[in-house]
Write a structure and sequence with these properties.
Elements lengths: L5 E3 L44 H9 L6 H5 L3 H15 L26 E6 L5 H10 L3 E6 L2 E6 L1 H10 L5 E10 L3 H9 L13 E8 L6 H20 L12 E7 L3 E7 L21 H11 L7 E3 L6 H10 L20 H14 L8 E5 L2 H13 L6 E5 L12 E5 L7 H21 L3 E7 L4 H5 L5 E7 L2 E9 L7
Parallel strand pairs: 6-7, 9-10, 9-12, 10-11, 12-13
Antiparallel strand pairs: 1-6, 2-4, 2-5, 3-4, 5-8, 7-8, 13-15, 14-15
Helix pairs in contact: 3-6, 5-10, 6-7, 8-9
The structure holds S-adenosylmethionine (SAM).
The site of S-adenosylmethionine has 19 residues, from helix 9.
């Protein structure tokens, strides 16, 4: 990768809805680097007190990498051997642990503190702080935001909760290994060192995706293959069998993130991106992703009892997200997750969590949530999506040109993503529409707030309203701004 900017593998994390790059998280101040993998059946982890569990775990499992300077004096074959040993240590898999176990250890009793893991939640860029708040409310610890995501610590049950309840995350990644590297062999050894067979069965299909930033490696395709080789060779060593690769719909996705000199390996606990809620059946022409829509609602400050109006509703994404928030419907209730296909899965805790979430849903009722669109086809999409989600009763839909709309209440929040003109004719149409849209909002929607997401650099000038807030946001790879207008009768121009 000679390119200094971010490079992508055949299938990069960032392609899907602008997911961010996981970064090498700073560890909690008192810990050293955390090695994630451990063969617990052979050497059980110490039992720290719950409140200090993550600190003690970090201290117990971590070992600083061996000094590089010593290696450079060794001849090449010895260097490779040394790197292999180092990678095994970095991945937390010491060969010497592989002595026959005296007797199988019983499963961890419920009273024992849960093992603390490190996670990285990806999200559309611009939503990191809102996602951090959401994860904190779910019980995440030691949260740190970075471009495109949030690092956090907690037990595996927190990862189930984040997948089930997060409206803003795109994926929840579980860190399984990390270390320094100089070449492909180092990363291969890192992948080989992980006890993958403790996380998933060999019968599961796998896919590896790599994102790299400033990596000195020449080919992302090649390093993707080498990581896959490391995973398969680990399985072969353990069982004589290897998992099959399935790039489109794998059971298990392995993600790698490479910086200039460090690699991090993750297991993707989500599977399909979390914005795929399993609810939207029709997507219309330019739908916004569900987690971006939910993030915009969060940033708008909309409260579930406040009127909400999307006058360019398309397939109804804002309406569906708002209705689910107002009715306390967990976004993940209608789908499955990759962690359900993993070993070490606490099926009882997961079943309990899902049934609690189900019980917390409020019955569907009419809500002050309104949508309209000029296109009959878009409205039909919104109608069938809301029906399929069982939310049709909660939302009022109507067919209207935005220039003819009237406010459905005295105050509330208008939210929309207007079409973005890519062809010349469309650009001209939009340029004519924006000033009139500004007039409609100013003259008819006094006491409302309007939140408009757009990638169109002309919008702020042409709408002729002064924005009270501008928030940079990414819709996939498209750089946008969320403009907030506080509409007060007789002012704002
Ligand atoms: C980018 S799409 C919105 C997508 C929507 N947020 C979703 O997630 O499906 C823009 C929508 O604006 C609608 N639209 C365009 N011009 C309009 C107008 N003058 N009045 C009302 N709706 C309009 C289009 O029909 C289209 O559905």
């Amino acid at each position: 990768m000679t390119d200094k900017s971010k490079s992508r593998g055949t299938l990069s994390i960032n392609k899907e809805g602008g997911e961010g790059k996981p970064r090498q998280a700073k560890r909690p101040a008192t810990s050293r680097r955390v090695n994630i993998e451990r063969d617990r059946s052979k050497k059980p982890a110490p039992r720290p007190a719950p409140e200090t569990a993550w600190k003690d775990k970090a201290a117990a499992e971590d070992k600083p990498p061996r000094a590089r300077s010593a290696r450079s004096e060794k001849p090449a074959p010895e260097r490779t051997r040394a790197r292999t040993q180092e990678a095994r240590r970095d991945g937390g898999e010491a060969r010497r642990r592989e002595r026959p176990a005296a007797a199988p250890k019983p499963e961890r009793a419920d009273s024992r503190p849960a093992r603390i893991e490190q996670f990285f939640a990806t999200c559309p860029r611009g939503l990191e702080n809102a996602l951090a708040e959401e994860l904190r409310a779910l019980g995440a610890d030691n949260i740190e935001t970075t471009g495109g995501g949030v690092t956090f610590f907690g037990p595996m049950t927190l990862c189930y909760a984040a997948n089930l309840h997060s409206r803003l995350a795109t994926r929840i990644l579980l860190r399984v290994s990390a270390g320094k590297y100089q070449n492909e062999e180092d990363v291969y050894q890192g992948a080989l060192a992980v006890f993958w067979h403790k996380w998933f069965d060999v019968s599961r299909t796998i896919a590896v995706k790599v994102v790299a930033q400033d990596s000195p490696l020449k080919s992302l395709n090649f390093i993707t293959l080498r990581i896959k080789d490391g995973v398969c060779d680990r399985f072969r060593e353990e069982s004589g069998q290897r998992p099959s690769v399935q790039t489109l719909h794998p059971d298990i996705r392995i993600r790698a993130f490479l910086t200039r000199d460090r690699y991090t390996l993750y297991l993707d606990t989500s599977g399909e991106s979390l914005y795929k809620r399993g609810l939207r059946k029709q997507s219309g022409a330019a739908p916004i992703n569900e987690n971006l829509a939910a993030g915009i609602l969060r940033l708008s400050g909309w409260q579930p009892d406040e009127p909400l109006y999307d006058p360019m509703c398309g397939s109804g994404t804002f309406l569906m997200e708002a209705a689910q928030m107002a009715l306390n419907i967990a976004p993940g209730l209608g789908r499955d997750f990759a962690f359900e296909r993993m070993l070490r899965m606490d099926a009882r805790a997961w079943a309990r969590m899902k049934s609690d979430a189900q019980a917390a849903c409020q019955p569907v009722r009419p809500l002050p949530i309104y949508g309209s669109d000029v296109m009959g086809r878009s409205l039909r999409d919104a109608d069938s999506n809301l029906k399929a989600a069982g939310l049709r009763e909660a939302v009022t839909l109507s067919k209207a040109d935005i220039l003819e709309i009237e406010p459905p209440a005295k105050s509330g929040v208008v939210v929309m993503n207007p079409p973005y003109g890519v062809r010349l004719g469309e650009e001209e149409e939009l340029a004519a529409l924006y000033p009139k849209l500004g007039d409609v909002l100013k003259n008819r929607f006094a006491n409302w707030r309007a939140c408009i997401i757009s990638a169109d650099a002309n919008l702020p000038r042409l709408i002729r309203l002064s924005a009270s807030k501008k928030t940079p946001l990414f819709n996939g790879a498209l750089e946008c701004r969320l403009y907030e207008y506080k509409l007060v009768a007789g002012s704002n121009r």
